[in-house]
Amino acid sequence: MIFPDDIATWLKIIGAMSTAIGSILLAWRVKAILKWVVYGLVAHEQSLTQVRRILNDKQPVEPMVEGITKHLLDIESKLGVILLIAGFLFLAAGMMATAASFFFGGGSASV
């Protein structure tokens, strides 16, 4: 295995890996947020359907969903914030490492 011996190449490698890790963390976070948005919409629609049935003097066939915001806020206040911040920090570190590699590259403009 051949390892690079100049700092510019190492900075580009670190920059690429940090940016990739940051992108993955942010994508994972967005996926979790969208999942909870869907859960909230489904619960909302189910509850509206049951309210409509009650207003039309029909028996509800499914339960009324309550407390979805409590669960969402619990999840958002813990791991979600950490993943979001970590994702942005990795992206920023990756971009700065890649930018710094141009100062050590001896005039090379390839990324």
Count every beta strand, where a strand is a DSSP E run of 2 or more residues.
0
The total tally of domains equals: 1
The average pLDDT is 86
Shape: rod-shaped
Pattern of helices and strands: HH
Uncertain spans: none
Binned strand content = under 5%
How far apart, in Å, are the first and last alpha carbons? 21 Å
Helix content range:
over 70%
Class of secondary structure makeup: mainly alpha
Q: Report the C-alpha radius of gyration, rounded.
A: 24 Å
Largest sheet, strands/sense/barrel: none
The tally of helices reads 2
Walk me through the structure.
The model has no long low-confidence stretch (mean pLDDT 86). The protein has two helices and no strands. The protein has one domain (18-96). It has 111 residues and is mostly helical. Helix 1 packs antiparallel against helix 2 (68-101). The chain is rod-shaped.
Keywords:
111 residues; mainly alpha; rod-shaped
Task: Write a concise synopsis of the structure shown.
This protein is mainly alpha-helical.
Show the helix and strand layout.
Blueprint: H1 7-55, H2 68-101
Helix pairs in contact: 1-2
